[in-house]
Write a structure and sequence with these properties.
EC 5.3.1.17; about 280 residues; seven-stranded mixed beta sheet
Length: about 280
């Protein structure tokens, strides 16, 4: 499990492009046949990916956090961004088509990821945070979350937001998780940008064409920075950092948060004219 320490605005303001990418960008989330995990000290989030590639993969990494098993004191949100897959969690079996979201509560001991059938190429995105109590494991298929339509074509940000783990959906201790899909012809995932000093947010960009990129805005509003992100790469966004993005084509992304509260709308908008 890779470790990444928390960063301050002063450190980021002086960082080179290479340093900024090393701090906040996870370039290899999915590697065939492997489990990849990154531990960030921003709200003690663990994020990563499991790509079975024809061979079941068990959820490991407990030794790095000095636990008997990874979810001994944690909860986990999972979104499948690949082909049809299966998650076996203790004595339960969950079938996840692309776009499905599974929540596993604290105390889930044995977790195994696999393809639903040979060659289906499931890709499970993982987002975990500390949990103080246990909630039931629950699966939501695409379309079963709370769908919100935001933006407009005239502003190039018409998008569908499907909330899965949130106050009005799947219950958790502190994880909030969902998927945003931009409509054809739209490229901005949000603008004006915003911050929320009360929680860390992470993004997994997917369905980005091979020859396309997403420009992820970050940093302080008065000293903005950016990351150039390819398909199936993830970004760690500290609570104090703005986050917005524009692509060279339409795309989708998994957003997930953990921190002080679970209110999706708890955000501090940053007017466009104030960003530098």
């Amino acid at each position: 499990m890779e470790q990444r320490y928390a960063t301050s605005p002063a450190e980021v303001g002086a960082a080179s492009t290479e340093e900024l990418r090393a701090r906040w960008l996870v370039e290899e989330v999915f590697v065939p046949g492997e489990l990849r995990l990154v531990y960030t000290h921003h709200d003690r989030i663990i994020l990563g990916g499991a790509q079975p590639a024809g061979k079941p993969i068990a959820l490991t990494g407990a030794e790095q956090i000095h636990a008997e098993y990874l979810l001994e004191n944690r909860e986990l949100g999972i979104v499948n961004v690949g082909g049809a897959g299966v998650v076996n969690a203790d004595d339960e079996r969950f079938e996840l088509p692309k776009g499905a979201c599974l929540y596993l509560g604290r105390g889930t001991r044995d977790v195994v990821f696999s393809d639903a059938e040979p060659g289906s190429d499931a890709q499970f995105y993982l987002f975990s945070a500390p949990a103080h109590t246990s909630y039931p494991s629950q699966l939501a298929l695409p379309g079963q979350g709370t769908v919100r339509e935001l933006g407009a074509q005239v502003t190039s940000n018409e998008r569908s937001i499907e909330q899965f783990i949130h106050q009005g959906g799947i219950k958790s201790c502190q994880v909030v998780m969902g998927v945003t899909t931009l409509h054809p012809g739209s490229m901005w995932n949000t603008m004006p940008a915003h911050t929320h000093d009360r929680r860390t947010e992470c993004y997994l960009y997917f369905d980005v064409p091979q020859d396309a990129r997403v420009i992820h805005l970050c940093g302080e509003p008065q000293e903005s920075r950016h990351l150039v992100v390819a398909d199936r790469q993830a970004v760690i966004s500290p609570s104090w950092s703005i986050h917005a993005g524009v692509g060279t084509s339409a795309y989708s992304f998994v957003w997930a948060m953990a921190g002080e509260n679970q209110s999706y709308d708890d955000m501090d908008a940053v007017p466009v004219e104030s960003i530098r």
